Amino acid sequence: MRWAAVALLVTTACADDRTLLRELFDNTGGPSWSDNYGWSENLSNLCEWTGVTCASEMSPESVVGIPSDSVVGIELPRNFLSGRIPSTFWTLPYLIFVDVSFNAGLEVNLEGVANAKLEWLSFDETATRSVEGISGLAGTLTSLHMSGIPLEGEFPTEILQLTALEYLFMSSSGISGTIPAEIAQLSQLVELDLSENALTGAIPNAVTLLINLELLSLRSNRLTENLSYLNFDDLAQLKFLYLNGNQLTGSIPSFSSQQNFEEILLNKNAFSGAIPDNFMVSAVNNGNMTVVVDLSDNMLDTIPESLDNLEHLFLDLRLADNHFTVLPTNLCDNVNWPGVAEFHCSGIVCPAQTYAPQGRATAANECTPCGTGEYLGAVVCLVQDEYSVLEQLFLNTDGEASWKVKWTLTDRNYCAWKGVHCDAQGHVTRIYVPNNGLKGAVPETIFHLPNLIDLDLSRNDITVPFDRIADAQSLASLNIAYTLTGDFAPLTSLNKEGPLQRFYADGIPISGTLPSEICAIRTLKTLSLSDCKLIGEIPTEIGNLGRLEELYLQGNELRGTLPSQIGQLQNLKAFSAAKNQMTGTLPSQLLRMPNLEALSLASQKGKGFSGAIPSFEASSKLTSVFLNDNAFTGQVPETLLRMADLDASLTVQLSNNNINGTLPGALAKFSALNLYVEGNSITDIDSRLCEIENWMSGSVGKYGCAAILCPAATQGGRQIFEDEPCEPCTTEAGSLLGQKSCGDGSDSPAFSGSEQEILELLYKQTGGVGWHNQDLWLSEESICQWHGVGCNTNGQVTSLTLGANQLIGNFPSEIYQLPALQRIVIFSNKINFSFEGIKNAANLKVLVLDSTGLTSLRGVGNAPALEGLNVRFNKLTGEMPQDLSRLESLKSLDISDNQLSESIPAWMGSMKSLASFKASNNKFSGELYDFADMPRLTYVDLSNNALTGTIPSTILMNADPSKKIFLSLSNNRLSGEIPNTLASLPKLDLNVANNEITSIGGGLCTMSSWNEMQVSYYGCDGIACPIGTSSASGRQTAEDRPCSPCAKAQFMGSTVCDTSDAFSSRSVVGLLFATFVGLTALIS
User: Fold this and answer.
1) What's in the keyword line of the UniProt record (predicted)?
2) Which CATH architecture has domain 13-175?
């Protein structure tokens, strides 16, 4: 700590020290601090409280005029403070220094800080988002530590008013824009750290006016330009200069006047040319101290002989990965330089055609022969150049035959290839080819690319070998999800402090325990292993991954309890272990994770998690909690999310547990809470909750308490839509709120009759005597002979096909109790159809309800095995019912010809099994959903709606390219260009007629298999007629059906020349034909 002597004469105080400290304790989660000795007991002597420093503990000269028992300092770093520091805290009359750093859930409120006479303030790694008010410390503050806070935006101008500052640390604070020239006002600065931000542009000359600087760190930003205009000679005191990891160009400075340098890091830039002849010529030997100079990973080409003038220094000179071809031999006897005494020239740089991890020989790694490489100081052995590595990847993975978007190998400018990104020096930094049709084994040389940071090979039929992954010195992100990779053992070769931070391996059938090799990669920030068929328990070694920010383990077969070691992941922001087979209570350590923002442990198979609902009262950043479909008991706690932002949008999903009692009124403090508790045993809601309009995404403002839970003696869980209110029960229903169906909350009791009696009930309740065809019904013949009844070999009913048969009245729910029933086809009948009890239809796969007068799909999501659903030509209105998202097995959905409106919902992405989606002739509006997360989708018809905006470039991006894809968007209001990313679907049938399309993406007009080969015959016209032309189909489909001139056609794809016509007769005939074909396919 650095604070000077102070003489404070305070005549009055806002309150005594004890009161102010107690207020700090109460507002920052004091009971949950890791060490709150003295605070919790309210000991009489404040000086004994943890983290409290009194004047009596300071040197007398630093506290002149301050009473000995007065509080002068607070030090509570890493103590699990959360919440917000109250403004009254700053009225402590003699406060000199405060350290509340590394409390991730704490917001430092600087309002009123001018009341303090602080000299030293540290709030590194807290949740502080603003420094408004800090300028009030302009006369006293000498040291400010605020690294790792989510500040964002440009450099705060208030800090520029702190002219007494000597130490300013603002690394990793999200600041962007340029470094302000006004920084010269901070003329007393000794150390300035602005590293790891998003600063851009040139380094201002104002920095060189800070003549007292000993440390300047601007590393890992986006700074550009050369440094020729900067006069570093003025910074005579400079010892540490960190400019590495930017985009600086031109020659490196000579630093010819500095005598005291200890460390200069200029690596990972784009400097070029020669090292200056007078480089560091004034440097002196300070007691045999090693001087580090890192110039590696640039484009420098000449090492001058004059560097021999530095032979007296203990110089750690790092020159790896440049363009040097000659090393002056007079440097090779400078034995003061590390490694030179033992390895001579190789101790400075490895010779050409050799390599070592540091580009020079060391005791751990000598220079190894390679056979290739023209430059000195190579860090990897490139068996081939970077072009050849990419070429091998393309050829080894069947590029010519299988890739959707191919690389043109004849164009050696690989930086322009699709999915390849390079840095300013032309090195490959990113390869992004997901879902691109790759097949076979990826060559291990992919890991030899020295600057490769991000590699995404996901969703391809490939194996990725890890044998050479340790050679990937820059690889930070690796995505091999949904590939055929299986051997993780070579991951043990990874350096535990290596570059890998993000690892995605979802969908790889590991079929075993979580690989220990992965748990050993301690640098990971993101680990995603969902849907990997993992078994066993989450290993305790997971706690070794202390840097993890995201952990995804959902959709596996993990068992047992959550290990307490999860609590060691103090940086964790998102954690999901949903859809496993885990049990037991949640470890207390999980409930005190300061950075956690999203937690999902929902839908455990079997017993599930149990115990009381946790309050998460110490988690100030938590905004999303999913604990539904488990076995939690007790009441919803009054302290739920006590430290969360009261105005933030929060989601707590607790439905389908064993929760009871009353929803507490204490939750009324939240202004936008989405609290899902239906399907429990709750008996009351505090009335205050029913008055908060923004609760439940605004539904409480519309439907009151019913938006939270349906009243007792009703069903439906909660009201979501205007036309789907909570429905009264006709049977004894009890006193529980939020029941999804009547009775005791379970499905209707089983009908005690035989299958024949169930069919007889159907006949009687739907006017059987008036049916168009009632052959053999109620006769003595086997029910399998009755009209429309299908059976299996055991005589059990498997299908009911009674379409257009004049059924009327109520369709009985007892039908769902036919144990082998697989298909119900009852289109074109005027019946009252209900999905109540459909959960009993365990084998029902197909349900055809076209033209039945259906007004609601409430309850359809309970059909456990449904694969095909047709509800065309009905009276469905409003938003697309979210109940559909629960149909995990659904493959075909036809909701055409209704009056559904609003936008296509994003939750459709959860319907992973869906292959066909027909929603034409509705009133859908808004932007077009991209269906990117639905890999099995092959048929999409959204024609004749009111969709607007452009066609997203990500549309159907994960669809199977080997299959024929049908996409109809005709008769909407879509505009702009047909995106060229659709080229990834070589068998696409695309209809964009009658929109506001103005162009076709490059390369699409050569997609020869598109539109039944029409594009191969007619080029762009086979996709959409040009502006100023039209045809009956909006494109050319035959030689005698060309795109004809039409002056009224303002957009591509016009079907008629008279813009007042909505459809041509051909469109109507086509619609009727499609309707007939779709119905026939589903019921056949």
Assistant:
1) Leucine-rich repeat, Repeat, Signal
2) Alpha-Beta Horseshoe (3.80)
